[in-house]
Write a structure and sequence with these properties.
Number of domains: 1
Order of helices and strands: HHH
Helix content: over 70%
Strand content: under 5%
Structural class: mainly alpha
Oligomer: single chain
Largest sheet: none
Radius of gyration: 24 Å
Amino acid sequence: MTQIVHHHLADAAQRLAHGIWNMVCTTTVAVPETLATWQERSHTRAALRDLDDRLLRDMGINHADAHQEARKPFWKA
């Protein structure tokens, strides 16, 4: 009986360790990707805000839509 309990505890510990490792690996990749996305979004919106009406028309974007997009916080898609 003690061996069965020990085996189940060892399996549970191994599953827990595997889950923690997966979470660490996912976070290690996801955080830098998210930061890079936010930085790119911030730069793109700043550039959009600075475009003149002629360039916006060439892109098919009106002035109001461009300013609405430029006002969004960097973390919002």
